[in-house]
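Below: protein 1.
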Amino acid sequence: MAGKVGLVMLQFEYLNRKKFGSQAEFLEKLQPFLTSRSRTAEKVKTLLAADLA
């Protein structure tokens, strides 16, 4: 499957400051899931961080 690209859509409930106090706290919770799913998790995390900034 080398060189294959796929799309993953993550759906979340409404998130506010009561659920996560900061973006960093959200990404800290998301990171274990991402690293367990793909070798490209760091790229996804970087994209998410840039998009949420």
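Below: protein 2.
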Amino acid sequence: MIRSIQAMAQALGILMVAEGMGAEAMRDLMRGAGVDWGQGHLWESLRLTCRA
């Protein structure tokens, strides 16, 4: 499902942000799915701090 949403966002020229990433495994999963940005307690809450 994440890959489908990411493909649609890419087709529309929209960057995708994954929220609530609190573990490196989640970050790696989102990065593998092509998610553009991540936010969560893995870095700091309520900030876009890392390009996935």
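Helices lie at 2-12, 24-32.
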